[in-house]
Amino acid sequence: NTSGFIFDLDGVIVDTAKYHYLAWKKLANELGFEFTHEQNELFKGVSRKKCLEILLDIGGINATQEQFDVWMVEKNEDYLRYIEEMDASEILPDVPKVLQFLKEHNVPVALGSASKNARPILEKVGLLHYFDSIVDGNNVTKAKPDPEVFLLAAEKLNVLPKNCIVFEDAVAGIQAANIANMVSIGIGDENVLSEADFNFNDFTEINLGFIQELAKLNGE
Ligand code: BG6
Ligand code: MG
């Protein structure tokens, strides 16, 4: 009856939202319209395909399937150029501290991300070895707020959903965790992530006693 910890990637472990934003903005500009930071909020936790659908909607653009696929590839290639330059300095503050603590206490840890680029990013920043299991955009068919990604992560960790703790920066991600009957922890603006069971601005606000409590609380 052990507990499991599940981490979202973008916006929780690394601040890649800015690179997603720059790549989408470039495409929008090429297509002749603006793409703002506010609009980018809607893209958090959302699959690449769904993001492009929203973007084209914003620009009032009708695309053929062929054009759509070309733009999907173009956006990702631009995004990958940013990712290429990433290193450990882009890990969000105190994330390694928490991962290290969980590893030392043999708590199962999984990634639960919508991104198809999750594995190479974790490799680049040197955090891959902390994860017992990776569930990402390559493994799931239903996007957050559907709980599929987290339920699959729980299954892979061999931990009951109710004993899982999820860290998320996206509204859709918190909803997915709640639907999965997991403990949801919002990382970011508590007014935006108001549906979360607990809220923190970032990991510097989370002390290890709390992590231990969560692990124990569900494990005993
Ligand atoms: C999520 C991000 O983690 O991954 C979204 O929050 C992104 O903004 C999605 O669209 C898909 O990512 P990728 O790397 O597969 O394009
Ligand atoms: Mg995220």
TrEMBL record:
<feature type="binding site">
    <location>
        <position position="168"/>
    </location>
    <ligand>
        <name>Mg(2+)</name>
    </ligand>
</feature>
<feature type="binding site">
    <location>
        <position position="144"/>
    </location>
    <ligand>
        <name>substrate</name>
    </ligand>
</feature>
<dbReference type="GO" id="GO:0008801">
    <property type="term" value="F:beta-phosphoglucomutase activity"/>
</dbReference>
<feature type="active site" description="Proton donor/acceptor">
    <location>
        <position position="10"/>
    </location>
</feature>
<feature type="site" description="Important for catalytic activity and assists the phosphoryl transfer reaction to Asp8 by balancing charge and orienting the reacting groups">
    <location>
        <position position="144"/>
    </location>
</feature>
<dbReference type="GO" id="GO:0005975">
    <property type="term" value="P:carbohydrate metabolic process"/>
</dbReference>
<feature type="binding site">
    <location>
        <begin position="8"/>
        <end position="10"/>
    </location>
    <ligand>
        <name>substrate</name>
    </ligand>
</feature>
<keyword id="KW-0597">Phosphoprotein</keyword>
<dbReference type="InterPro" id="IPR006439">
    <property type="entry name" value="HAD-SF_hydro_IA"/>
</dbReference>
<dbReference type="InterPro" id="IPR010976">
    <property type="entry name" value="B-phosphoglucomutase_hydrolase"/>
</dbReference>
<protein>
    <recommendedName>
        <fullName>Beta-phosphoglucomutase</fullName>
        <ecNumber>5.4.2.6</ecNumber>
    </recommendedName>
</protein>
<dbReference type="InterPro" id="IPR051600">
    <property type="entry name" value="Beta-PGM-like"/>
</dbReference>
<keyword id="KW-0460">Magnesium</keyword>
<dbReference type="InterPro" id="IPR036412">
    <property type="entry name" value="HAD-like_sf"/>
</dbReference>
<feature type="binding site">
    <location>
        <position position="10"/>
    </location>
    <ligand>
        <name>Mg(2+)</name>
    </ligand>
</feature>
<dbReference type="Pfam" id="PF00702">
    <property type="entry name" value="Hydrolase"/>
</dbReference>
<feature type="binding site">
    <location>
        <position position="169"/>
    </location>
    <ligand>
        <name>Mg(2+)</name>
    </ligand>
</feature>
<dbReference type="GO" id="GO:0000287">
    <property type="term" value="F:magnesium ion binding"/>
</dbReference>
<feature type="binding site">
    <location>
        <position position="8"/>
    </location>
    <ligand>
        <name>Mg(2+)</name>
    </ligand>
</feature>
<feature type="binding site">
    <location>
        <begin position="113"/>
        <end position="117"/>
    </location>
    <ligand>
        <name>substrate</name>
    </ligand>
</feature>
<keyword id="KW-0479">Metal-binding</keyword>
<feature type="binding site">
    <location>
        <position position="24"/>
    </location>
    <ligand>
        <name>substrate</name>
    </ligand>
</feature>
<feature type="active site" description="Nucleophile">
    <location>
        <position position="8"/>
    </location>
</feature>
<keyword id="KW-0413">Isomerase</keyword>
<comment type="similarity">
    <text>Belongs to the HAD-like hydrolase superfamily. CbbY/CbbZ/Gph/YieH family.</text>
</comment>
<feature type="binding site">
    <location>
        <position position="75"/>
    </location>
    <ligand>
        <name>substrate</name>
    </ligand>
</feature>
<feature type="site" description="Important for catalytic activity and assists the phosphoryl transfer reaction to Asp8 by balancing charge and orienting the reacting groups">
    <location>
        <position position="113"/>
    </location>
</feature>
<dbReference type="InterPro" id="IPR023198">
    <property type="entry name" value="PGP-like_dom2"/>
</dbReference>
<keyword id="KW-0119">Carbohydrate metabolism</keyword>
<dbReference type="InterPro" id="IPR023214">
    <property type="entry name" value="HAD_sf"/>
</dbReference>
<dbReference type="InterPro" id="IPR010972">
    <property type="entry name" value="Beta-PGM"/>
</dbReference>
